[in-house]
Amino acid sequence: MKRDIDWSKLGFHYTEPEYIVRSAYHEGAWEEPYATKDKYLHLHVSATCLQYGQEAFEGLKAFRGVDGKIRIFRWKENAKRMAKSAEGLFMEPVPEEIFGKAIHLALEKNIDLVPPYGTGATLYFRPLLIGTTPRLGVGPGRDFEFIVIPSPIGPYYPGKFHCTTFIVNRHVDRAAPLGTGQFKVGGNYASSFRATEAAHALGYDCLFLDAKHHRYIDECSAANFIGIKGNEYLTPRSSAILPSITNDSLMTLAKERGMKVTRRHIRLEELSEMSEGAACGTACVISPIDKVLDPEKGKTYLFGNEPGPVLSELYHALRDIQFGRAEDTHHWCEIVEN
Length: 338
Ligand code: PLP
Ligand code: COI
Fold this sequence. Notes:
By secondary structure, the chain is α+β, with helices and mostly antiparallel strands. It is about 20% helix and about 30% strand. The strands form 2 sheets. Strands 1, 2, 3, 4, 5, 6, 7, 8 and 18 form a 9-stranded antiparallel sheet that branches. The chain has a 6-stranded mixed β-barrel with strand order 9-10-11-12-15-16. Pyridoxal-5'-phosphate binds next to strand 12 and helix 5.
C-alpha cells in the first residue's frame, strides 16, 4: 500500500503500519509467525503482563542504503538480548528462528514503509513479548505472545546532531544493582518516569547513577553513556544497565581506530576529566552531551555546544555502515532482497 508520508518530517513517533506480526506460545510450542492488520489484542484482564509486569521488548532498525538495498542491523543481537530479558522475567524465550521470521515478515509486508535513502528516516521494529496466562496468584504464566510492530521513524532528536543536557537525580533509581536493569523490560521504563519526566519539565534528560552508592554513572535516560578521555573510550560497567548493541558496535569501531576501550565504574566527578561525552542507543545512535548538571552538589560539567571530533567520527563511521556507504567488514547488516 503506497502511503503519503513526508519522510523527512518524521520524528521518533509511531506511524501505523499496515501489518504487524504475531506468534503465540501455547502448550509448549510457538506458532508460525503470521502477519495481521489487527493491532488489538484479545487479552484476558488477568494476564500476567497486566497483573505482574511480564513484558519485555526490543528495538532495531532497517535502513535503505545508498545503493537502494535494505539492511537490517544486527537483529540476531536483539534476538539474543530478548531471550535474556525473557529469562529474567521467567518468560519463554523467543527462539532466534521465530524472532528472525517475524522481523523479515514484518519488513516484507510493510516494504513501502522503509523510508527512502537520504531522508534520515529508517524502519524501526518494536518486538514485544507478553505473558498472556490469566493469573491472580502471584507467579509467572505459561502462555506468551510475541509481536513485531514496525514503524517508520525519523531521528530521535530532530535537527542535525543534537546535543543533550543531563541532570543528575539521586531521589529516583532506575534499577537495582541485582534487579532487572540489564533486561529490556517495560517495568524499568515505568519506574524511571518519575525521574525522566521531572528532568523533562526542566528541559533536560535524566542521568541515572548506580542505585547502591549514587556515585557511578549508570545510564543516560534510556541510553548508555560514553566518555572520551585522551585516547580512551570509557563506558560504565554495571549490572543495572542495558548491554547496548550500539555501544558494542561503537566500541569495536573505536578499537579499530587505535583507541583504548575501557568498561569500568565511572565516578560522576570524572566527567570533568573527559573531553567528550555522549548517550548512545539504536534510536539516536550517538547524542553528544553538552553539559551535565548536578544541582544537589552545585556542580556543572561542561562539554561544549558542538559534538567533539572523536564521537563525531564514530557516529559517521557507524551510520556509513548502516546506510551502505562503507564496507560492512563485521557483517553487521543483513541485506534483504526487495
Ligand atoms: N539503555 C537503555 C535503557 C535502552 O532502552 C537502550 C535502547 O535500546 C539502550 C541503552 C541502547 O541499547 P541499543 O544500542 O541496543 O539500542
Ligand atoms: C533506543 O533505541 O536507543 C532507546 O533508547 C529505546 C527507547 C526508544 C525505548
